[in-house]
Protein backbone atom coordinates (compact mmCIF):
# COMPACT_ATOMS: atom_id res chain seq x y z
CA UNK A 1 0.00 0.00 0.00
CA UNK A 2 1.45 3.44 -0.96
CA UNK A 3 2.64 5.64 1.93
CA UNK A 4 3.52 9.27 2.52
CA UNK A 5 7.18 8.27 2.25
CA UNK A 6 6.58 6.97 -1.26
CA UNK A 7 5.04 10.28 -2.28
CA UNK A 8 7.84 12.26 -0.58
CA UNK A 9 10.47 10.23 -2.41
CA UNK A 10 8.89 10.86 -5.82
CA UNK A 11 8.28 14.56 -5.26
CA UNK A 12 11.56 15.20 -3.43
CA UNK A 13 10.18 16.90 -0.31
CA UNK A 14 9.74 15.95 3.34
CA UNK A 15 7.00 13.69 4.66
CA UNK A 16 5.71 16.56 6.79
CA UNK A 17 5.24 18.70 3.66
CA UNK A 18 3.27 15.88 2.02
CA UNK A 19 1.12 15.56 5.14
CA UNK A 20 0.36 19.30 5.25
CA UNK A 21 -0.78 19.36 1.63
CA UNK A 22 -2.96 16.25 1.87
CA UNK A 23 -4.53 17.41 5.15
CA UNK A 24 -5.03 20.95 3.86
CA UNK A 25 -2.84 22.43 6.59
CA UNK A 26 -2.25 26.08 5.68
CA UNK A 27 -0.14 26.97 8.72
CA UNK A 28 2.96 27.12 6.50
CA UNK A 29 3.34 28.36 2.94
CA UNK A 30 4.03 25.66 0.37
CA UNK A 31 4.97 26.43 -3.22
CA UNK A 32 1.93 25.97 -5.54
CA UNK A 33 4.03 23.98 -8.01
CA UNK A 34 5.03 21.62 -5.22
CA UNK A 35 1.38 21.16 -4.26
CA UNK A 36 0.54 20.36 -7.84
CA UNK A 37 3.26 17.70 -8.05
CA UNK A 38 2.10 16.16 -4.77
CA UNK A 39 -1.50 15.79 -5.95
CA UNK A 40 -0.33 14.37 -9.27
CA UNK A 41 1.68 11.68 -7.48
CA UNK A 42 -1.18 10.98 -5.05
CA UNK A 43 -3.41 10.30 -8.03
CA UNK A 44 -0.76 8.33 -9.91
CA UNK A 45 0.08 5.86 -7.14
CA UNK A 46 -3.47 5.67 -5.73
CA UNK A 47 -2.59 6.80 -2.20
CA UNK A 48 -5.44 6.54 0.33
CA UNK A 49 -5.13 8.51 3.61
CA UNK A 50 -5.15 6.56 6.85
CA UNK A 51 -8.72 6.74 8.15
CA UNK A 52 -7.76 7.27 11.79
CA UNK A 53 -5.44 10.10 10.80
CA UNK A 54 -8.16 11.57 8.62
CA UNK A 55 -10.54 11.43 11.58
CA UNK A 56 -8.09 13.35 13.75
CA UNK A 57 -7.70 16.01 11.08
CA UNK A 58 -11.47 16.25 10.70
CA UNK A 59 -11.90 16.66 14.46
CA UNK A 60 -9.40 19.49 14.48
CA UNK A 61 -11.30 21.20 11.68
CA UNK A 62 -14.56 20.85 13.57
CA UNK A 63 -12.98 22.39 16.64
CA UNK A 64 -11.57 25.28 14.61
CA UNK A 65 -13.38 28.58 14.51
CA UNK A 66 -15.46 29.36 11.40
CA UNK A 67 -13.57 31.32 8.75
CA UNK A 68 -16.67 33.47 8.01
CA UNK A 69 -15.76 33.17 4.33
CA UNK A 70 -18.08 32.17 1.47
CA UNK A 71 -17.08 31.38 -2.11
CA UNK A 72 -19.07 31.59 -5.33
CA UNK A 73 -18.55 29.64 -8.56
CA UNK A 74 -20.43 30.67 -11.71
CA UNK A 75 -20.67 28.51 -14.79
CA UNK A 76 -20.05 31.21 -17.39
CA UNK A 77 -17.52 34.10 -17.19
CA UNK A 78 -20.11 36.59 -18.45
CA UNK A 79 -22.22 35.99 -15.32
CA UNK A 80 -19.76 38.17 -13.42
CA UNK A 81 -19.11 41.90 -13.78
CA UNK A 82 -21.89 44.20 -14.92
CA UNK A 83 -24.28 41.50 -16.06
CA UNK A 84 -27.86 42.86 -16.07
CA UNK A 85 -29.32 39.68 -14.57
CA UNK A 86 -26.61 38.23 -12.34
CA UNK A 87 -25.11 41.47 -10.99
CA UNK A 88 -28.18 42.27 -8.83
CA UNK A 89 -28.20 38.65 -7.58
CA UNK A 90 -24.52 38.82 -6.59
CA UNK A 91 -25.06 42.24 -4.98
CA UNK A 92 -27.85 40.75 -2.89
CA UNK A 93 -25.60 37.84 -1.89
CA UNK A 94 -22.64 40.04 -0.95
CA UNK A 95 -24.61 42.67 0.98
CA UNK A 96 -26.68 40.12 2.91
CA UNK A 97 -23.57 38.12 3.83
CA UNK A 98 -21.90 41.29 5.04
CA UNK A 99 -24.92 42.18 7.18
CA UNK A 100 -24.70 38.71 8.75
CA UNK A 101 -20.97 39.00 9.48
CA UNK A 102 -19.66 36.94 6.53
CA UNK A 103 -17.45 37.86 3.58
CA UNK A 104 -17.77 36.82 -0.06
CA UNK A 105 -14.18 35.65 -0.53
CA UNK A 106 -14.24 35.21 -4.31
CA UNK A 107 -16.35 34.78 -7.44
CA UNK A 108 -14.70 32.35 -9.87
CA UNK A 109 -15.97 31.15 -13.23
CA UNK A 110 -15.79 27.43 -13.95
CA UNK A 111 -13.35 28.18 -16.79
CA UNK A 112 -10.86 29.48 -14.24
CA UNK A 113 -11.05 26.21 -12.32
CA UNK A 114 -10.45 23.74 -15.15
CA UNK A 115 -6.95 23.17 -13.84
CA UNK A 116 -7.04 20.65 -10.97
CA UNK A 117 -4.65 22.73 -8.88
CA UNK A 118 -6.80 25.85 -9.24
CA UNK A 119 -9.95 23.95 -8.33
CA UNK A 120 -8.22 22.41 -5.31
CA UNK A 121 -7.05 25.83 -4.14
CA UNK A 122 -10.48 27.44 -4.56
CA UNK A 123 -12.38 24.66 -2.82
CA UNK A 124 -10.01 23.23 -0.22
CA UNK A 125 -7.33 25.80 0.58
CA UNK A 126 -9.45 28.92 1.01
CA UNK A 127 -11.00 27.54 4.23
CA UNK A 128 -14.55 28.37 3.21
CA UNK A 129 -17.55 27.86 5.50
CA UNK A 130 -19.91 27.68 2.52
CA UNK A 131 -20.17 28.03 -1.24
CA UNK A 132 -22.73 29.22 -3.81
CA UNK A 133 -23.01 27.64 -7.26
CA UNK A 134 -24.66 29.55 -10.11
CA UNK A 135 -25.66 28.07 -13.47
CA UNK A 136 -25.71 24.67 -15.14
CA UNK A 137 -23.58 22.56 -12.76
CA UNK A 138 -23.36 18.81 -13.27
CA UNK A 139 -23.97 16.36 -10.41
CA UNK A 140 -20.36 15.13 -10.38
CA UNK A 141 -19.03 18.65 -9.79
CA UNK A 142 -21.56 19.23 -7.01
CA UNK A 143 -20.53 15.95 -5.35
CA UNK A 144 -16.88 17.07 -5.38
CA UNK A 145 -17.80 20.42 -3.82
CA UNK A 146 -19.96 18.84 -1.10
CA UNK A 147 -17.19 16.41 -0.21
CA UNK A 148 -15.06 19.33 0.96
CA UNK A 149 -17.63 22.04 1.81
CA UNK A 150 -20.83 20.74 3.46
CA UNK A 151 -22.76 24.02 3.18
CA UNK A 152 -23.59 24.37 -0.53
CA UNK A 153 -26.48 26.22 -2.15
CA UNK A 154 -27.41 26.68 -5.82
CA UNK A 155 -28.96 29.45 -7.93
CA UNK A 156 -30.32 28.95 -11.44
CA UNK A 157 -29.17 25.31 -11.58
CA UNK A 158 -30.44 23.31 -14.53
CA UNK A 159 -30.51 19.97 -12.71
CA UNK A 160 -32.78 19.39 -9.71
CA UNK A 161 -30.02 18.11 -7.45
CA UNK A 162 -31.64 16.55 -4.40
CA UNK A 163 -28.63 17.07 -2.11
CA UNK A 164 -28.41 20.85 -2.55
CA UNK A 165 -30.83 23.64 -1.66
CA UNK A 166 -31.91 25.54 -4.77
CA UNK A 167 -33.11 29.15 -4.96
CA UNK A 168 -34.87 30.19 -8.16
CA UNK A 169 -38.21 31.22 -9.64
CA UNK A 170 -40.53 28.83 -11.49
CA UNK A 171 -39.13 29.31 -14.98
CA UNK A 172 -41.44 26.76 -16.59
CA UNK A 173 -44.57 28.42 -15.16
CA UNK A 174 -43.21 31.87 -16.06
CA UNK A 175 -42.73 30.87 -19.69
CA UNK A 176 -46.20 29.35 -19.81
CA UNK A 177 -47.65 32.72 -18.80
CA UNK A 178 -45.67 34.33 -21.66
CA UNK A 179 -46.97 31.87 -24.26
CA UNK A 180 -50.53 32.21 -22.92
CA UNK A 181 -50.28 35.99 -23.32
CA UNK A 182 -49.03 35.70 -26.90
CA UNK A 183 -51.83 33.26 -27.75
CA UNK A 184 -54.37 35.70 -26.26
CA UNK A 185 -52.96 38.31 -28.66
CA UNK A 186 -53.79 35.99 -31.56
CA UNK A 187 -50.36 34.49 -32.19
CA UNK A 188 -49.94 30.90 -33.37
CA UNK A 189 -46.49 31.14 -35.00
CA UNK A 190 -44.20 31.70 -32.03
CA UNK A 191 -40.40 31.41 -32.07
CA UNK A 192 -37.84 31.06 -29.29
CA UNK A 193 -34.46 32.70 -28.54
CA UNK A 194 -32.28 31.28 -25.76
CA UNK A 195 -29.30 29.14 -24.82
CA UNK A 196 -28.38 25.65 -23.62
CA UNK A 197 -30.90 23.95 -25.87
CA UNK A 198 -29.88 20.36 -25.01
CA UNK A 199 -26.48 20.29 -26.74
CA UNK A 200 -23.31 18.39 -25.89
CA UNK A 201 -24.90 16.62 -22.95
CA UNK A 202 -25.85 19.88 -21.19
CA UNK A 203 -29.31 19.63 -19.56
CA UNK A 204 -32.00 21.46 -21.51
CA UNK A 205 -32.55 24.94 -20.13
CA UNK A 206 -35.86 25.20 -18.28
CA UNK A 207 -37.15 28.23 -20.14
CA UNK A 208 -36.91 26.24 -23.37
CA UNK A 209 -38.55 23.26 -21.66
CA UNK A 210 -41.34 25.58 -20.50
CA UNK A 211 -41.73 27.00 -23.99
CA UNK A 212 -42.14 23.55 -25.58
CA UNK A 213 -44.52 22.48 -22.81
CA UNK A 214 -46.73 25.58 -23.19
CA UNK A 215 -46.81 25.28 -26.97
CA UNK A 216 -47.73 21.61 -26.77
CA UNK A 217 -50.54 22.28 -24.29
CA UNK A 218 -51.92 24.92 -26.65
CA UNK A 219 -51.78 22.48 -29.57
CA UNK A 220 -49.12 24.54 -31.37
CA UNK A 221 -46.03 23.32 -33.21
CA UNK A 222 -42.50 24.29 -32.21
CA UNK A 223 -40.86 25.05 -35.55
CA UNK A 224 -37.11 24.26 -35.32
CA UNK A 225 -36.43 26.97 -37.93
CA UNK A 226 -37.77 29.54 -35.47
CA UNK A 227 -35.59 28.41 -32.54
CA UNK A 228 -32.37 30.43 -32.13
CA UNK A 229 -29.70 28.95 -29.84
CA UNK A 230 -27.44 31.85 -28.87
CA UNK A 231 -25.18 30.37 -26.16
CA UNK A 232 -26.46 33.41 -24.20
CA UNK A 233 -24.55 35.87 -26.41
CA UNK A 234 -26.36 38.97 -27.62
CA UNK A 235 -24.44 39.07 -30.90
CA UNK A 236 -25.73 35.57 -31.66
CA UNK A 237 -29.28 36.69 -30.96
CA UNK A 238 -28.88 39.52 -33.47
CA UNK A 239 -27.22 37.39 -36.16
CA UNK A 240 -29.62 34.49 -35.54
CA UNK A 241 -32.61 36.78 -35.99
CA UNK A 242 -31.14 38.18 -39.21
CA UNK A 243 -30.66 34.65 -40.54
CA UNK A 244 -34.20 33.65 -39.53
CA UNK A 245 -35.71 36.66 -41.33
CA UNK A 246 -33.70 35.99 -44.48
CA UNK A 247 -34.28 32.24 -44.60
CA UNK A 248 -37.93 32.33 -43.51
CA UNK A 249 -39.07 35.40 -45.43
CA UNK A 250 -42.27 33.72 -46.61
CA UNK A 251 -43.04 31.86 -43.39
CA UNK A 252 -41.69 33.86 -40.49
CA UNK A 253 -43.04 33.79 -36.89
CA UNK A 254 -45.41 36.51 -35.76
CA UNK A 255 -43.97 36.54 -32.21
CA UNK A 256 -40.65 35.74 -30.55
CA UNK A 257 -40.10 34.81 -26.93
CA UNK A 258 -36.54 35.42 -25.67
CA UNK A 259 -35.13 33.75 -22.55
CA UNK A 260 -33.59 37.05 -21.44
CA UNK A 261 -34.28 40.72 -22.11
CA UNK A 262 -30.80 41.30 -23.55
CA UNK A 263 -31.38 38.59 -26.15
CA UNK A 264 -34.78 40.09 -27.00
CA UNK A 265 -33.35 43.60 -27.43
CA UNK A 266 -30.64 42.41 -29.83
CA UNK A 267 -33.18 40.51 -31.95
CA UNK A 268 -35.55 43.50 -31.97
CA UNK A 269 -32.81 45.58 -33.57
CA UNK A 270 -32.44 43.03 -36.36
CA UNK A 271 -36.19 43.26 -37.01
CA UNK A 272 -36.44 47.06 -37.10
CA UNK A 273 -33.32 47.40 -39.28
CA UNK A 274 -35.15 45.40 -41.94
CA UNK A 275 -38.15 47.73 -41.93
CA UNK A 276 -40.46 45.46 -39.94
CA UNK A 277 -42.67 46.82 -37.17
CA UNK A 278 -42.87 45.70 -33.55
CA UNK A 279 -45.42 44.43 -32.53
CA UNK A 280 -47.47 44.64 -35.77
CA UNK A 281 -45.16 42.38 -37.83
CA UNK A 282 -43.37 40.53 -35.02
CA UNK A 283 -44.13 40.80 -31.30
CA UNK A 284 -41.41 40.36 -28.66
CA UNK A 285 -41.35 39.41 -25.01
CA UNK A 286 -38.40 38.63 -22.74
CA UNK A 287 -37.53 37.63 -19.19
CA UNK A 288 -35.64 39.48 -16.42
CA UNK A 289 -37.16 42.99 -16.49
CA UNK A 290 -33.75 44.63 -16.66
CA UNK A 291 -33.78 48.42 -16.37
CA UNK A 292 -33.21 48.95 -20.10
CA UNK A 293 -36.30 46.94 -21.09
CA UNK A 294 -38.62 49.81 -20.17
CA UNK A 295 -36.73 52.19 -22.49
CA UNK A 296 -36.50 50.17 -25.71
CA UNK A 297 -38.52 51.25 -28.74
CA UNK A 298 -41.16 50.02 -28.23
CA UNK A 299 -40.86 49.17 -24.52
CA UNK A 300 -40.27 45.45 -24.04
CA UNK A 301 -42.82 43.14 -22.42
CA UNK A 302 -41.08 40.90 -19.92
CA UNK A 303 -41.20 38.70 -16.84
CA UNK A 304 -40.03 40.56 -13.73
CA UNK A 305 -37.70 38.34 -11.68
CA UNK A 306 -36.78 39.34 -8.08
CA UNK A 307 -33.04 39.24 -8.78
CA UNK A 308 -31.74 41.06 -5.69
CA UNK A 309 -34.11 39.06 -3.46
CA UNK A 310 -32.81 35.80 -4.95
CA UNK A 311 -29.36 36.88 -3.78
CA UNK A 312 -30.42 37.89 -0.28
CA UNK A 313 -32.52 34.75 0.18
CA UNK A 314 -29.61 32.57 -0.93
CA UNK A 315 -27.23 34.27 1.50
CA UNK A 316 -29.62 33.97 4.46
CA UNK A 317 -30.26 30.28 3.80
CA UNK A 318 -26.56 29.52 3.37
CA UNK A 319 -25.77 31.13 6.72
CA UNK A 320 -28.45 28.98 8.33
CA UNK A 321 -26.83 25.86 6.88
CA UNK A 322 -23.38 27.00 7.98
CA UNK A 323 -24.45 27.60 11.59
CA UNK A 324 -26.51 24.40 11.76
CA UNK A 325 -29.97 25.98 11.96
CA UNK A 326 -30.93 24.15 8.75
CA UNK A 327 -29.68 20.74 7.68
CA UNK A 328 -32.17 19.45 5.08
CA UNK A 329 -31.98 20.55 1.43
CA UNK A 330 -35.01 22.34 0.02
CA UNK A 331 -36.24 24.06 -3.12
CA UNK A 332 -37.17 27.74 -2.72
CA UNK A 333 -39.05 29.52 -5.52
CA UNK A 334 -39.59 33.27 -5.44
CA UNK A 335 -42.54 34.91 -7.24
CA UNK A 336 -42.39 36.42 -10.73
CA UNK A 337 -44.63 38.94 -12.52
CA UNK A 338 -45.68 39.24 -16.16
CA UNK A 339 -45.31 42.86 -17.31
CA UNK A 340 -47.10 43.73 -20.57
CA UNK A 341 -45.69 46.62 -22.60
CA UNK A 342 -46.04 47.77 -26.21
CA UNK A 343 -43.69 45.18 -27.77
CA UNK A 344 -46.38 42.48 -27.44
CA UNK A 345 -49.63 44.43 -27.00
CA UNK A 346 -51.62 44.32 -30.25
CA UNK A 347 -55.00 45.30 -28.84
From TrEMBL:
Record keywords, A-Z: DNA-binding, Transcription, Transcription regulation
GO molecular-function term, one example from the UniProt record: DNA binding
Transmembrane segments: none
Cited Pfam families: LacI (PF00356), Peripla_BP_3 (PF13377)
Domain (HTH lacI-type) ranges: 2-58
Protein name: LacI family DNA-binding transcriptional regulator
PANTHER family xref list: HTH-TYPE TRANSCRIPTIONAL REGULATOR GALS (PTHR30146:SF109), LACI-RELATED TRANSCRIPTIONAL REPRESSOR (PTHR30146)
Gene3D superfamilies per record: 3.40.50.2300, lambda repressor-like DNA-binding domains (1.10.260.40)
Residue stretches in coiled coil: none
